[in-house]
Amino acid sequence: MPQKARERWGSRTGFLLAAIGSAIGLGNIWRFPAEAYKNGGGAFLLPYLIALLTAGLPLLILEYTVGRKYRRSPPAAFRQLAKPVQVIGWWQVAICFVIATYYSVILAWAVRYVGFSVGEQWGDNPEEFLFGDFLQAAETPGDVSGYVAGVFWPLLAVWLVVLVVLAFGVRRGIERANMLFIPLLVIFFAVLVIRALTLDGAAGGLDALFSPDWSALGEGSVWVAAYGQIFFSLSIGFGIMVTYASYLGRRADLSGSALVAGFANSSFEILAGIGVFATLGFMAQAEGVPVDEVATEGLGLAFVAFPTVISSMPTGWLFGLLFFVSLAIAGFTSLVSIVQVVVASVQDRTGMSRVPAVLSVGGLIAVVSLLLFSSDNGVWFLDASDHFINQYGIALAALVFVVVVAWWLRALPQLQEHANATSAVRLGKWWLFFLGLVTPLGLGWMMVDSLRSEFDENYGGFTDDFLLKYGWGVAIGALVVGILLSLIPWRHTDELPLSEPGRGSGPPTGGPGTSGTGTSGTGTAGTGTAGTTKNGTTRERGR
């Protein structure tokens, strides 16, 4: 069977907008501002920038390079590095499957809230409206006892639009959608920020956000938070950028593209911080309380705090439209990229054409999403699954991938040479050092810090049984599924060779480090979210 021609991006701009659209998601809007506020305010920008330069961008360049070099989705691309490494790729595919099932639900909520904004239908108690009237959340997390039509139908509509975009392909579907939606997102959010800056109390909110607490830089938790925000906001660690880069041309600029996408993502995060805290400053002044009493994140910010602000400001409905449309666009472009990883992996594995792959794979994800997350327990399933799949899925998979590539395969010098052949910004020994040492240490530190928190107390106050099923069970299940999928034999005649000429597919026999470097070596998701319980408490979550 002859090898099928792989799809290509229509232009570098199209690829960059798609990469930026994947990186800019819900976490940019509702996670970064709160992380900065809690971890030193303006001083947080220093560890954040260091994390971006020493870990985020190097890992982003690595994923671009692997994707463009092998022109395959994660499982097939990693298999070219070494056959056992495909396990990591399938693990990432399983992670994307899980994330897509619930990420789409938040997008559906945002769509509904666009309509709710017009008449400010949440009334005087946005929190009770969210959990009671809208989500009809069960009092006790557990088994499904009913479904919520107000969530089911917009969620179904979201999935239909996503599948249509994916069915049109990389150039006619994903690229065109991002060419339209990313400029719209920037315009809408810029208008929203300008409006927020004119509100009474906006200066107080910005002062609370950006006033630096330099003493915070001596706390390890602040640096962990900075590295965590970078990994979860750049869409690295779960295969998206490997997949997107696989559609690049042979002479595409890799390092330059990574710099543009990385700094565009961070710029939007700072813009989001300005808009969010200017709005919270208005809310604090209106209620006569300090900013720290209204500062929140995630669901509490988007679906409780902002509706409260909207109801108390002139022409609030217009502000609400801008905010929730921006939230929906940011979520949509990220969701498309997440599902594309699964679709592309199935295509590469089976030889299936795009439309059947989208309908079968995307349809399965949509069915699981509708069955679980349009139920009265949907918000609780989302909360636990999101936290554990981020902390022990995305971040852990990124850590394993970097360690395997840098220390087991010692493949970084070869990948560096491939990237430098067509990149405007050449990768030097600094790239090898950061990926071989700094990135693994940062990710490892995050793992230890997160596990310590898990063992101190149950996440979100959930019971052991619930967390075993929908928290730890989901994270461990993704790894098990990845291992099982990797055991299925590859039988396609159009498969790329397992290794390049002159290099074996197994691990080297020498010690770590090569080429005199000494060392060689997460949107993300994502994005982070936070949930607000019915009694008003706030819990943190990853993307």
List the SSEs and their pairings.
Blueprint: H1 12-23, H2 26-30, H3 32-38, H4 45-70, H5 74-81, H6 86-119, H7 126-134, H8 149-167, H9 169-197, H10 202-210, H11 220-233, H12 240-245, H13 254-287, H14 298-312, H15 316-350, H16 354-373, H17 378-408, H18 412-420, H19 429-456, H20 464-486, E1 530-532, E2 538-540
Antiparallel strand pairs: 1-2
Pfam family, one: SNF
Keywords: Membrane, Transmembrane, Transmembrane helix, Transport
Subcellular location: Membrane
Give a quick set of tags describing it:
single chain, 543 residues, mainly alpha, Amino acid/polyamine transporter I
Task: Please outline what is shown here.
It is built from 20 helices and 2 strands. The chain is mostly helical and 543 residues long. Mean pLDDT is 87; it is low at 493-543.
Describe it.
This protein is mainly alpha-helical and 543 residues long. The chain has one domain (12-214, 223-246, 254-490, 522-540): Amino acid/polyamine transporter I (Up-down Bundle). It is built from 20 helices and 2 strands. The protein has helices spanning 12-23, 26-30, 32-38, 45-70, 74-81, 86-119, 126-134, 149-167, 169-197, 202-210, 220-233, 240-245, 254-287, 298-312, 316-350, 354-373, 378-408, 412-420, 429-456, 464-486; strands spanning 530-532, 538-540. Helix 5 packs antiparallel against helix 6 (86-119). The longest helix is centred in the middle third of the chain and has 35 residues, at 316-350. The model is unreliable at 493-543 (pLDDT under 50).
